[in-house]
Amino acid sequence: MKKIAIVGGGIIGMTLANYLDQKKYQVTLFDEPTGQATSASAGIISPWLSKRRNKQWYRLAKDGAAFFPKLIQDFQLDETIYQQSGTLLLRPKEQLTELFTLAEERKKEAPEIGTIELLSGEQTQQELPLLKPLPALKVSGGGRLDGKAYLIQLRQLAEQKGIEFIGQRVQLVDATTINYGEKEAVFDQIILTGGPHLKRLLAPLGYQVDLRPQKGQLLVFQTAYQTSGALPVAMLDGEADLIPFLDGKILLGATHENDAAWDLRETPEAFKQLTDNARNFLADPEKLLSTPFHYRVGTRAYTSDFAPFFGQLNDHLLVASGLGSSGLTTGPYIGYLLANYLNTGQANWQEYQKELITYIQQEKTLES
Ligand SMILES: Cc1cc2nc3c(=O)[nH]c(=O)nc-3n(C[C@H](O)[C@H](O)[C@H](O)COP(=O)(O)OP(=O)(O)OC[C@H]3O[C@@H](n4cnc5c(N)ncnc54)[C@H](O)[C@@H]3O)c2cc1C
Q: Who has the most CB within 10 Å: 27, 47, 99, 175?
């Protein structure tokens, strides 16, 4: 049986671990989760109305969203973890008509977008009473994923399969050897899914990686606003979205802070930025903004062209990173594609990304 190590227990690493053929591989997953993006994330799964021009990224995000029904079934995700809640997009009225046309066009290749409706202010408020009566575009296929709850569920499933977890920060000694604490272990394959840390992980082996960290903060309000039905996610105009969960938790976020990078401190500036923006959209701002809250802070990974990359780097190493602000949408599918590659030898991802060499270059020849 071959030995596989996964470094990084975020959404890619954990999904990948669960899809690996346990009859073929003995799997160890290393994760030290400080600053992990997956558990800090907002949870919006709704890529279809993005105006990004990168067609490969859009295909990946679209197929990533379409992958969710399989994910729900394979990992028994209940509605507290993932819910197809629908998404409301709040924009000035003239932009909504344009977005409606874009949505109709995209639906031809992405039926999972569901129904597309232009809502009056009154209808928007009926959908999500927290909001002012503002016009919106609703897509019924949008959803929200509780990243942290997803990881807890997948860890339980992985442990039942016999996957070993080691909660330590690791370093690569060479392409097959991992150092953790005082120990070293050798593997046939190592899969690096460490988010923005990939750059540091690969540096000792002479690789240069086009990756930068970005800080994201969001606010979690614990309200009494519980519901048994699905409240839609509201994607507000500006840098803040509202994501209501079934237990009364309402997320407001997130910031995109390039200067702060690795800094994980909670800041009053983030609170001000997010709440100032939300006030323009909330029917009764003080009601929500005066409820108890806490921060979530995480670090996203970005490449220069904002596109993810994943695949086989050399005989022993596989990598995946650069998921930016849409990694909850693309991450599970990337994990699945990598697992499928290791299980079957089929690499079905050319249509989703540029060649790996675009993002990772070797400075010197590896002696491994
Ligand atoms: C505030 C915020 C809001 C977001 N909202 C959304 C959203 O609404 N929708 C969406 O689609 N995406 C969202 N994202 C983006 C998404 O969360 C990320 O793109 C995705 O979770 C990245 O997953 P990952 O597995 O690549 O990395 P991560 O989740 O960061 O996991 C990597 C893990 O590897 C560990 N690790 C790294 N190096 C080592 C090492 N040497 N040893 C041991 N462990 C190591 C890390 O500590 C971490 O636990 C958001 C991100 C943030 C920060």
A: 27
